[in-house]
Amino acid sequence: MFKSSITPEELESLPSGGFNGEIVVIDRPGIAYLQAVEYLHKQSILGFDTETRPTFNPSQHNSGVALLQLSDGKRAYLFRINKLGLRKRLCRILSDPAIVKVGAATHDDVRSLQRKGSFRECGFVDLQNFAFDWGITDKSVKKLAGIILGIKISKAQQLSNWEAAELSEAQKKYAATDAWVCREMYLKLIKSPK
User: Fold this and answer.
1) Distance of CA 79 to CAs 14, 33, 48, 84, 149, Å?
2) Fewer CB atoms inside 10 A, N or C side of the chain?
């Protein structure tokens, strides 16, 4: 049903896609944080991703994960870990086996998050490995989205400053899309024959 890989030309010819739901940025503890965690705890499948401020030379300090993104399809929560820290209630979601958390290269993201807060990794699905069962060999989120969903997603903000005082609208859309698209691909795969 799915192609094993996609060429850059094929990818470029696809319609653009992205997250169109509500984006909520959480950068401090308080009511909004508690409401976000309560909402996410009620979900069974979440799209998952993280962002780190890029470093372009060896003298730059890498402070680790700056942003954690979790999306249920309708809402995308962007937790600014560089300001908020990785708090216990968020760690409980990351440890909950009843909540499937779908991302790409999740092992690396989880290890980076574990440097920010202690939690037991549970309930994670790595699309890069998962999609292989459907014969898909491409690994990037952009190519996976093209193959599985037939859409082209923008990666223009990937190397932007995720520790900026305020995230731009383009950064928010990019971050929300990365988490959302992983969940959408997982849902399509589990409904498709291998």
Assistant:
1) 31, 9, 11, 7, 26
2) C
